[in-house]
Amino acid sequence: MIRIGLLKKIKTKYHDFELKVNVAVDKPKIIGITGDSGVGKTTFFRMLSGLTMPDNGYINVGDDHWFDSDQKLDKKVTERSCSYLFQDATLFSHMTLFENIRFSNTTLTDADISDWLITMDILKLKDHYPSALSGGQRKRAALLVNLVNKAKVILLDEPFVALDETSKDSVLKLIKKVFKESSSVIFIASHDHEVLEDLCDQVFRIENSLLDIQMSC
Amino acid sequence: MDWIPLILSLKLAATTTILLLVVGIPIAYFLAYTKFKIRFLLEAILGLPIILPPTVLGFYLLLAFSTSSPLGLWLQNLTGISLVFSFLGLVIASMIYSLPFMIQPLKNGFETVDHSMLELAEVLGKSKWITFRKVILPNSIKSIITGAILTFAHTLGEFGVVLMIGGSIPKETKVASIAIFEYVETLNYQSAHRYALILLGISFLILVTVQALSMKKEKRR
To answer: Could you tell me the pTM of the whole model?
Structure first.
């Protein structure tokens, strides 16, 4: 289903290294990715979504080729079916929570949006602007915006940061619900090992600049 | 009091502002987001009217608009009227003269839109046009209003370029600033005062509005 082989030189303040990514996943799965800060989790997500250009390699999702350096193929971000929850839980600041979700997926009805908001226990905040939300509320809202988009690949970068236990539970519930109802592959980057172990089919660690995910069966 | 010069000034300022909004938004968008390496050169050319003496700009526009130049001849064939000493000529000259006053605030506004919102729109599959309409424009409203107000005010106070291109044809190109100049020339200070005070009032009102806008807290953020 997903085949990825990528190389990317990463320059940081402290050291330079070459991130190597190999992924082979044959079925929809929830995959955890962990590793120390700065090892390249976000870079992997950015390369997969198309926001950062890999140095070379390939990304194939089903029969769809998203990137192939040999063939000079680089599919536009907008044409990749890939949603991405950024670490800072970005929302559109000029839209209410309701409008944010509507903008993400214009085919949703008002009732659909309300259902999603109820799932996350933030229905009463639907007319609020992002600036009026707490860190946890914002995280849940941003997660909704990304999950309702129904992409083939869903990338969640630190979705559990700034969440209390209740919020964490509703986020877990939502991820499981979306996974059950879709055929998406969900990648979750997090430092929260306990939650990853509980939620994911398997957890992989980036070590020695290598992320090697083999889930073929 | 003859109101026509004032009405002409307001008409010129309004027309220039509306047309520059239409022309300026795509140019500012291009400047804000292009990776074109010699962007600075384009910005320098577009910013020239800020530092160029209006008479210099007016002189070259006069030469360009006259029917002895290929451009002027082509424009006359296209529009059917001579651009020199006409209201249309004034509008085009004003657009060139005020271009940087519209472009700069717009470009700054577009550049300061949170980059992660643009990336989020991209990963949600939104086209550049939808992102522009639904994300960039609503987040640049203050800059658009500032650009429009500055352009309006700048055009209203125009003198050098207007005099060179339009001369002083009553009911056609004799705007308020030219009328003031002529009244002063004929020592008719009382009439000059009337126009000057009205222009002063309008200019002050515009500046107060710009200041109020820049101080206004962004409630939604």
So the answer is: 0.87
